[in-house]
Each structure stands twice: as structure tokens, then as C-alpha cells.
Design goal:
The protein is mostly helical. The protein has two helices and no strands. α1 runs antiparallel to α2.
């Protein structure tokens, strides 16, 4: 994996996670924010990984 790919993946995961938290919480309950962060980060990482390998498969 190229360093550029890694940075792009981190950026996509970070942006998705922040949007996920923003849309699902009112920022008053810290435990809920942490749970939503973990959920959003997991989903974004999974989606990014699947897309990466799909693009790698198509490009080869």
C-alpha cells in the first residue's frame, strides 16, 4: 500500500466518522459520542477497505 493510499484512507475514515457523529448526536452525552465514534470509525474503515481492494482488483 502506498503512503498516499494510506493517507487518503485515513482522511476518508476521519471525514466519514466526523459526519457520522455530527448527524447522530447532540453533543451532550460523552458516552454516546464515544460509542457513535467507534461505530462510525468501524463502518468507515470497512467501507474504505472494501473500496480499496475493489479498485485494486479492477485496476489490475
Amino acid at each position: 500500500m502506498n503512503p498516499t493510499d494510506i493517507l487518503l484512507s485515513i482522511a476518508i475514515v476521519g471525514i466519514y466518522t466526523m459526519v457520522h457523529i455530527y448527524l447522530k448526536t447532540n453533543y451532550k452525552n460523552n458516552k454516546r459520542i464515544l460509542a457513535i465514534f467507534v461505530e462510525g470509525f468501524s463502518i468507515a474503515t470497512l467501507i474504505t477497505g472494501v473500496l480499496y481492494y475493489l479498485i485494486k482488483f479492477i485496476a489490475s
